[in-house]
Amino acid sequence: MKLSYGRMLQDQLEGSEGLPRARLDSLAERFPAIQAEVRDRRGKGEYGFYRLIDQPDTVREISTFADGLGQAHDHVLVLGIGGSALGAKALLNALRPPAWNELDDEGREFFPRLTVLENVDPTSIGAALRRIDPRRVLVNVISKSGGTAETMAQYLVVRAWLEDALGAAAYRHLVFTTDPARGALRELARTDGIATLDVPPEVGGRFSVLSPVGLLPAALVGIDISELLAGAGRAVARAEADGLRQNAAALWAALMYAADTELGAPIHVLMPYTDRLREFAEWYRQLWAESLGKRENRAGKTVLAGPTPLAAVGATDQHSQVQLFMEGPRDKAITFITVEQLSEDLPIPAREHLPAELAYLAGHTLGGLLRAEYEATSTALAQMGRMNCTLRLPDLSAGTLGELIMFFQLATGYAGVWYGVDPFDQPGVELGKRLTYGAMGRPGFDPQPRPSGDATDEA
User: Fold this and answer.
1) Contact yes or no for 114/88 (Cβ under 8 A)
2) In terms of pTM, does the model score above 0.85?
3) Residue-range domain boundaries for the chain
4) 290 belongs to the catalytic site
5) Which of 319, 344, 352, 357 is catalytic?
6) Which one of 46, 121, 241, 294 counts the least CB within 10 Å of its CB?
7) Can you tell me the distance from the alpha carbon of 435 to that of 418, in angstroms, rounded to the nearest whole number?
8) Which entry of 37, 46, 202, 433 is annotated as an active-site residue?
């Protein structure tokens, strides 16, 4: 995996836009202090996701479960929200054939279908439960705290659905992924004899895709989780470099930080040129937004920091968002992702009597057209003075995806230091949780009054 970043720099863009090359030098001079702080905080346990590259016991446990009990079911139903759901969806989208759930048993190599319920919209949940056979489903409930309101509401609905069909045997169709010692899910598991996997206490939800949170669903559908972690290990090894230009994750974080704080570009677009990374871009949105959007810095000073991540997909969004990227406000930095070796390509056939304006397509391939679309978009943006860079993947294998996942987690950890904020907490989310608990009558949480005007200022 390589980062091409020249089009973030002023001398590679038309006009006077972009980062002066001398500023890159000054960022590089500051980087040893950034690296030292990351290492210090790692030593204190803050950067727990680094340790996920070395978990042989967990891999063996998950693989044994997936090869045994897991294959006794033809559907896996994941209940979660945020980091407990987005990672599993990204893994399935990237590493299993498109339209996985629509394939027959042979097309899926006899691995189960996978459905992720990530919201409490009753229309979505009701429809899912009507199309899944409760006798053939394995339900994976994921909540690190064991008390997430949305996930636990999903669980109570699904548990009743299982019991209606299976009676006392319902517990055999459940596996919980949660804190190893605390929380309501852990208590229920002990009481009901439900199988469990542990979320490492030092790993936050949005950094947990390479823990059992993402590894179990991945293994159940036949993804090589050892290769995922091997790829992540390569990213961590590269991040040990003390030179900024040799440390791609730290360099990308520095470029995005400078684009935001110095060049008025707080909107950071991730635009893979493959449908297989569409869900990955959604995973990135949570990681970048929830980690860096903070009211206060580590010193307690109000800073209202944080870039706004945006997901796009090429070439689809060339016909929707790229007009804005090209001619709208200069408030965006765009990161493309390309895949050199596609898993499949299709020739564009020649036909007799094609109109001249279509004949040029014949003899090319869809993959070649996709690459040309990317190159043209990146070049056009540069000619318009718009900052962009590219992550170039050799392929889209489990190892490469593991490296890409860890790249963005590492970059997020570095960005926390560049911005001076804690990338591992989410106080704004916690406030919403407390208000939800109060509104739903949870003991110990008082209902909060509706803000003035919310119900009366309506059209």
Assistant:
1) yes
2) yes
3) 2-42+229-427, 49-223
4) yes
5) 319
6) 121
7) 32
8) 433
Query: Taking Cα atoms as reference points, which of 310, 365, 371, 308 lies closest to residue 339?
Result: 371
Token output for 269: 């677009």
Helix (H) or strand (E) holding 334: strand 332-339
DSSP assignment, residue 448? P
User: Would 2-42+229-427 and 49-223 be classified into the same CATH topology?
Assistant: yes
- Report the pLDDT value the prediction gives residue 352, as an integer from 0 to 100: 85
Domain 49-223 has CATH 3.40.50.10490: yes
Side-chain-facing half-sphere of 72: CA atoms under 13 Å = 11
Peptide bond into 170 cis (omega under 30): no
Catalytic residue among 118, 150, 279, 290: 290
The mean pLDDT values, 10 residues at a time, for the chain of 459 residues are: 97 93 96 98 96 96 89 94 95 98 96 96 97 97 90 97 97 95 93 94 95 97 98 98 98 98 97 98 98 96 97 97 97 98 94 87 95 97 97 98 98 98 86 65 64 60
- Ramachandran class of 395: left when φ > 0, alpha when ψ lies in -120 to 50, beta otherwise: beta
| CATH 3.40.50.720, domain 2-42+229-427, yes or no | no
The helix (H) or strand (E) run that includes residue 391 is strand 388-393
364 is catalytic: no
Q: Give yes or no: 319 in active site.
A: yes
Q: How far apart are CA 318 and CA 124, in angstroms?
A: 30
